[in-house]
Amino acid sequence: MSIYDSLNEMQKKAVFQTEGPVLILAGAGSGKTRVLTHRIAYLIEEKGVNPWNILAITFTNKAAGEMRERVDHLVGFGSESIWVSTFHSACVRILRRFIDRLGYDTNFTIYDTDDQKSLMKEVCKYLQIDTKTYRERALLSAISSAKNEMISPQEFLLQAEGDFSKQKIAEVYLEYEKQLRANNALDFDDLLVRTVQLFETQPDVLDYYQERFRYIMVDEYQDTNTVQFHLIRILSSKYRNLCVVGDDDQSIYKFRGANIKNILNFESEFPDATVIKLEQNYRSTSNILNAANAVIHNNIGRKDKTLWTENPEGEKIACKQFDNAYDEADYIAAAIQKKVKEERASYKDCAVLYRTNAQSRMFEERFVSTNIPYKVIGGVNFYARREIKDLLAYLRTIENGRDDLAVRRIINVPKRGIGLTSINRVQEYALQKETGFYEALLAADLIPGIGRALSKLESFVALIEHFKEEAGRLTPLALLTDIIETLDYENYLEEIDMEDAESRIENIEELKSKLASYEESCEEAGEQPTLSGFLEEVALVADIDNLDEESDYVVLMTLHSAKGLEFSYVFLAGMEDGLFPSYMTITADDPMELEEERRLCYVGITRAMKELTLTCAKRRMVRGETQYNIASRFLKEIPESLIGTVSGTLRERPQMEIARNQTYAKAKAAFHSQAFGIKRPVQQFKVASGEGPGYDVGDRVRHMKFGEGLVTAITEGGRDYEVTVEFDRFGVKKMFAAFAKLQKMDESGF
Ligand SMILES: Nc1ncnc2c1ncn2[C@@H]1O[C@H](COP(=O)(O)OP(=O)(O)OP(=O)(O)O)[C@@H](O)[C@H]1O
Ligand SMILES: [Mg+2]
Q1: 392: domain range?
Q2: By the 8 A CB rule, do 349 and 567 touch?
Q3: The whole model's pTM is what?
Q4: Lowest CB count within 10 Å: 141, 195, 251, 369, which one?
Q5: CATH number of the domain that residue 499 is part of
Q6: Residue in 33, 277, 349 to alter for ligand 1 test, most ligand atoms within 8 A of Cβ
Q7: More confident residue, 25 or 750
Q8: Which ligand has the shortest distance to the CA of 29?
Q9: Does residue 178 sit in the same domain as residue 226?
Q10: Which parts of 260-399 are beta strand (E)?
Q11: Residues 465 and 584 in one domain
Q12: Is residue 584 part of a domain?
């Protein structure tokens, strides 16, 4: 029996159609990723294609690793010379080799979001931009969109004619690019833009890669953006063996520039494309699949397709509403423990998915107290931590002396008594001489007014030069260890922050072990470990790559991170209007925003193989404010017949009161009346008309949690009264009367 016998007819067709453009358009869990792996195996095994000639693009490094493993498993050889990687990693590899053609050094630094923010601060300061009017984040996002659409700063400026604020952005964009280049640095978007630029301007380089990548495959194609599309098109234009797989219903990265047109217009771009649709889902029970189908059916702008499955009906979908987010977390923790105990599931079969990273904290607390091993994917990135950034900045300074941002980060870390005035003097001098910051430091004695700071600057330079010299002899790990010792860095951490020092030192140990495993993997591959090699890995690591399938823990992550993955038991938490879909989406004028959220919901539901539990809370704290939310409109789109109750309820809870089977039009009408009639999502609780909340403005009231306070306002919110109370100990809070259960106090204080 061959490995291809396990595929269905359509999947086989997709695997065997190796030549020419192919579009596989199929719903979740229909085996798209599986088809890609088998296709690679087929190319190598049956078609005699050299693994060297294959490029497979996946969305995360983790997916890339898995794909390589599967090929190894299927074919048994050759997987190491296939390029299976993310767009970004592939571009870095190409640029490390050829970017000097564009006037950069090949040891360029990759700037992450934090670095970009620091750089933007500098740019705004330099251009005297008022960051209250032009927010740094908004500027960066405008620049990123421009880059993703391949609009250069010069073009942007041209387009901005007559539009003052756009002209300002263009000015910032120009300066930002100038400084990136001066620092010999690229941001994430640049990695793609520069690669396309390289191919467009260097025919020999393009030809080299076109010859090399005769077979190109792209997974999760629905989330490619314009520049990625160009990259793929130009690379595949010679041999035209391009196979893309995707699902327009799972396009969830519009905010990052993903262009759904790439998939919808594939056929017009490649008129001879073979289009294959896969409609059988192998992942989920039919109850789960039908729920997913019902929800996504409410989107208008989609290619209609219906997934079916031969899988059993399975358990009904569980929906639970709780009074507050604590109870929700309690319930999920208990439900997971129960599954592990009674059904002999492993922790790693369970995943908790939510809309925003901030929701993870509540689960973490519960999981710690109930001894559930867990791992949060996302949140505060390991590499964004202060101590890690400091040490990496040392490594970056040593590796690329032109990385001004890194140099400035560490010039006074640990404290060397180098003040801001001196740093500004160096900066001014560098600007004036049009050199880098570190270069200016090398000639510090020439800087006007530098005075007594000179000796301190000189000893900093001597230290860096010493490390640079060591970098030539030591392995990266030995170098890092030496830096930490020479700086007495751990002591410094204790000095600045006793409390956190311990966990920070643990993080440093973690960094060391990451370096050690990097060196090990180099050794295995027979390569020389280098500082730039390590820094590159660090720069490209995505949170999801930290997921380790060997270990047994519950995974907590956002719906966005869950794309492409599958788990037996999935808990979708925080299914509330105002959270998911987000308040911003509900109130936005653009119904397309709501459709994007609905696709995200579809992605979430279709991660589940055996059981799906949807939960929501009536009340939760969001950014320090109590929010009162009704159950998500997406819940209401799931037919009642698919929903059951959770067996063995852990605590008695009121059942959710939701209108079933709302059509799109009805949902839309509801959302309009809600979004425009009332300021915030309103709790369904009804107050009998004419009946007041039982107290008046000026009355003193008592709240269970916040204690005593004074009622300062009561407004009628349509379905319930919104009461504003000035609490003696907790300040001003707005709450809904039905939930707040405020008790009026009489004169005597009772
Ligand atoms: N022909 C088949 N026979 C048995 N199992 C299959 C078959 N095709 C796919 N599967 C299984 O179904 C599950 C989903 O497959 P896969 O992850 O490839 O789907 P997908 O279309 O890529 O999903 P997504 O849209 O979520 O990325 C996997 O567990 C896979 O092994
Ligand atoms: Mg997939």
Answers
A1: 382-544
A2: yes
A3: 0.76
A4: 369
A5: 1.10.486.10
A6: 33
A7: 25
A8: 1
A9: no
A10: 274-278, 317-324, 350-354, 374-376
A11: no
A12: yes
